[in-house]
């Protein structure tokens, strides 16, 4: 057991060469208060949980949008619907005591181009969806539930199953206060969205909670997650398609959330990162359970782009099956059939700060060795960590590292072991790790990918 530099003053260590820029917050769009409130019962909704009310709810939403905006209100009872589309300047309000229940019939979810595992492919659109819209809001104290009659993520046809809530190219998005329950597919999936807020949600399900996919200026605040896969996952496309489109996920703020994960991580960044991920801030969150690591940053050669400027602080971590933090930048996720070749395909990574982290009996504190030697992590800070762990910190292929005030009791082995790491606070380290193996070079596909070509289902 041991501690690293626990007693040394902060002035003994250099600060990072450049502190990551704070994420930009969503920019509110001008509200339209038309005073319009529509009850889909006026269009024939039965609300008995058996009769499909899709047409009535959709007609109410469409009328609300064409009249300049307003609210469609679902009050009382169970509203059974297939996919419904929310238009601009429209609020879908599911009142307390009301349930929006997804249809069990896959045919009730149209097949469109959907983002799935980093590519645009044909698939079934989400239960509640919006596309090319602005000022879209979902709110209320009610429930939105997927049908358990649609198991798995991919149908026998090879088409992706519907997400629960899916938003594509929406500017000004607000999802607040609802309870969601999803089956095996992703729960909430914003793609190409800007200025989005997810607040006060209870997100339960058998897959990912919120997948932020090539979005800008996103806030996830005061949400409670209990999911079977990542509670929150940040993505930006895979392979040459994502790299060519080049729409990063950037300026994401996650605050005051509670996470319980049953299969993977509380927060996963990657592995679909081919347009880049940057300026992410996570503060004041509780990671109560994770099957693997509470925080998992992941990508691989062939993705290209970057993961930069990630700051996480004031976290409480317990119940982690593998540990607190893992970085895997060598072999995470499926290799795309059209990878980004050569040096451009090796992601640029760095600007990571983890501070004021409290851990309780995590098996591993930090595992960060799967890092490409040709592009080391540039900037990595561990500051003010406390608690207990089974094994300590292992770092490889990093520069500009700061380790400061890590006061964690380790039950087995040294607290810190490094290989090819430079920086400050690397005192009392164990012998170097076994040298990492340089991964093979990634060769671009021949013939090369061109935007718009059909690639089929992701391999």
Automatic annotation (TrEMBL):
InterPro entries: GH28_Enzymes, Glyco_hydro_28, PbH1, Pectin_lyas_fold, Pectin_lyase_fold/virulence. Coiled coil: none annotated. One of its GO terms (biological process) is carbohydrate metabolic process. Residues 1-21 form the signal peptide. Keywords: Glycosidase, Hydrolase, Signal. It comes from the Bacteria. One of its GO terms (molecular function) is polygalacturonase activity. Belongs to the glycosyl hydrolase 28 family. This is Glycoside hydrolase.
């Amino acid at each position: 057991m041991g501690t690293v530099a626990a007693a040394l003053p902060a002035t003994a260590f250099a600060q990072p060469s450049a502190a990551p820029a704070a994420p930009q917050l969503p920019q509110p769009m001008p509200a339209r208060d038309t005073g319009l409130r529509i009850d889909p019962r006026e269009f024939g909704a039965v609300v008995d949980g058996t009769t499909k009310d899709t047409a009535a709810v959709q007609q109410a939403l469409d009328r609300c949008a064409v009249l300049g905006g307003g609210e469609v209100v679902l009050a009382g009872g169970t509203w059974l619907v297939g996919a419904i589309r929310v238009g601009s300047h429209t609020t879908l309000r599911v009142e307390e005591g009301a349930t929006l229940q997804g249809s069990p019939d896959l045919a009730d979810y149209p097949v469109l181009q959907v983002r799935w595992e980093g590519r645009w492919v044909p698939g079934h659109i989400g239960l509640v969806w919006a596309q090319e819209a602005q000022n879209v809001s979902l709110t209320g104290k009610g429930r939105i539930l997927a049908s358990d009659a649609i198991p798995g993520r991919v149908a026998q046809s090879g088409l992706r199953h519907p997400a629960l809530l899916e938003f594509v190219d929406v500017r000004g998005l607000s999802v607040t206060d609802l309870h969601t329950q999803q089956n095996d597919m992703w729960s909430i999936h914003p793609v190409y969205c800007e200025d989005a807020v997810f607040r006060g949600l209870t997100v339960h399900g058998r897959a990912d909670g919120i997948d932020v996919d090539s979005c800008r200026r996103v806030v996830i605040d005061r949400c409670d997650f209990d999911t079977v896969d990542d509670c929150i996952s940040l993505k930006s496309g895979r392979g040459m398609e994502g790299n060519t489109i080049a729409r990063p996920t950037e300026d994401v703020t996650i605050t005051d959330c509670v996470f319980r994960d049953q299969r993977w991580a509380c927060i996963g960044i990657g592995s679909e990162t081919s347009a880049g991920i940057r300026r992410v801030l996570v503060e004041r969150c509780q990671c109560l359970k994770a099957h693997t690591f509470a925080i998992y940053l992941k990508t691989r050669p062939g993705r290209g782009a970057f993961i930069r400027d990630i700051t996480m602080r004031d976290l409480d971590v317990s119940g982690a099956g593998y540990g607190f933090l893992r970085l895997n930048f060598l072999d995470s996720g499926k290799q795309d059939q059209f990878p980004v070749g050569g040096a451009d395909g090796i992601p640029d990574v760095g600007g990571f700060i983890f501070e004021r982290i409290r851990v309780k009996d995590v098996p591993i504190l930090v595992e960060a060795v799967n890092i490409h030697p040709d592009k080391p992590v540039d900037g990595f800070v561990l500051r003010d960590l406390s608690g207990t762990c089974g094994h300590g910190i292992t770092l490889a292929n990093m520069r500009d590292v700061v380790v400061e005030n890590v006061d964690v009791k380790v039950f087995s082995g040294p607290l810190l072991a490094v290989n090819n790491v430079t920086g400050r606070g690397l005192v009392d380290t164990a012998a170097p790790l076994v040298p990492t193996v340089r991964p093979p070079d990634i060769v671009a596909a021949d013939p090369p990918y061109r935007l718009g070509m059909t690639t089929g289902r992701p391999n």
